[in-house]
Amino acid sequence: MSEKIQVLGISVEKCYVDEVMDNINENWNRDDVLATYGVINMKILLAAQKDEELKEYIDSLDKGVVDEPEVLEAANMDDMRMEEEVLGHSFFATLFWYLSRYQNQIYLLGETEEEANAFFNYVKEKYPEIVVLGKGSLKDGSEDDCDKIINDINALAPQAVLGCSGDFSIERFVKKHRKKMNTRVFFCLGERAEIQKETGVKKRWLEKILEKSSFKKLVSQFNEDEKN
């Protein structure tokens, strides 16, 4: 039985980067179902405490990839190899190396048009071997916007879709529409400092500090309640 990482009542399978990539390879040539992968960080775990849809999204992932050391600490996970991978954002780096190495055809998705353009510019500059078939944004997340994105993806039939987001609209989009999309794998990458830094849209330090504080307090309270 696979070991689980459990934080705030949410569990994901413990897996190293090479195990995630092996799973991606297994699903790459399947055409019967869309495989989904997403990062697990403090922000999504905090949001999922008040959002059942996000909990269901996390549970539905083929693999969830821990992306912050605070999550490992909260899970009392003493694993040097995993900690090194998390601190080095190894999944993000390995994924883009893989897509670049095999010149995969992808579609990029952002929450806004500005974010989609920033994501596109980042990929074209850093990984020119990757073939970007198209890009789009969810805008206000209306059914019309979602239908347009689904139609774009189905017309282009990319091998993979990569979403970069901050408010979880892409995660909700994947949860609701995964059966409608003509692609093999979907990666929800969350907020990416690598991309934000390149485009000058830096996350505020105060916001991050408050997020860490809220997360640690909630984990402490949750664990105390579990003991009682």
Description:
This protein has 228 residues and is of the alpha/beta class. The chain is 53% helix and 18% strand. α9 (169-177) links the parallel β7 (160-164) and β8.
Attribute tags:
228 residues; alpha/beta; 6-stranded parallel beta sheet; two-stranded antiparallel ribbon; 11 helices; 18% strand
What gross morphology would you assign? globular
- Give me the strand/helix succession: EEHEHHEHHHEHEHEHEHH
Which blocks of ≥5 consecutive residues have pLDDT under 50? none
Beta content comes to: 15-25%
Q: Count every helix, treating DSSP H or I runs of 4 or more residues as helices.
A: 11
Strand order of the largest sheet: 4-3-8-7-5-6
Q: Which radius of gyration do the C-alpha atoms yield? A: 17 Å
Approximate helicity band:
40-55%
Strand segment count: 8
**How can the largest sheet be summarized?**
6 strands, parallel
Secondary structural class? alpha/beta
- Give the end-to-end Cα distance, rounded to a whole number of Å: 28 Å
* Mean of all residue-level pLDDT scores: 90
